[in-house]
Amino acid sequence: MTKVFVVNAEGSISVSEREAELPRLDSRLPQIKKKLSDGNFSAAEISRLISQEIALVIIEMQEYADDPTQRHRLKAQAAEIRVLRALAKSVSKAPRNRDELNIDGPKLQHFLRLGFEIFEKAVRAALGKNSEGLVDKIMKNAHEGIEAFLQEIRLGEEISSSPAGDASQSDDATNGSGQFE
Fold this sequence. Notes:
The protein is mainly alpha-helical. The protein has two domains: about 1-95, no CATH class; about 105-170, no CATH class. The chain has helices at about 30-35, 45-65, 70-95, 105-125, 130-155, and strands spanning about 1-5, 15-20. A two-stranded antiparallel sheet has the order 1-2. A hairpin with a 5-residue loop joins strand 1 and strand 2 (about 15-20). The longest helix has 23 residues, at about 70-95.
């Protein structure tokens, strides 16, 4: 039990007892702490959780705004909001330990198209004019190998230093995606 002393404007003092405050049941703080302890955290996800926690604090502040016995709680909650905002700011500026790559994004797709164009020109120059069938087969196998590698990444498989799979298993150079042909 906690004792609360309130001094009114007339100078009278009132004393009340209340039970110790329990943390908010729907608080996002445990989730925020867990994600921060992970070195590969998503800044967007943590920022979303921090925003939700700030909203919960504001809602709780509104419940106690008109109660003079709860002024101490309002100050503590205002301080909590300041700390959460500072945390959000530091999360947004924190360096990440992982390299993020959107494998289906336009930049990588453009890079892959250019890379395949350069590779095809080099293969054609090396093999000569009378080897269209061989050039086509080499390009098909290269497309299949890259697509298999990208599919491994999409599925979250560990990237190894060896070539991705057997490229001769499919007839379609991009396994139906057609993104970089």
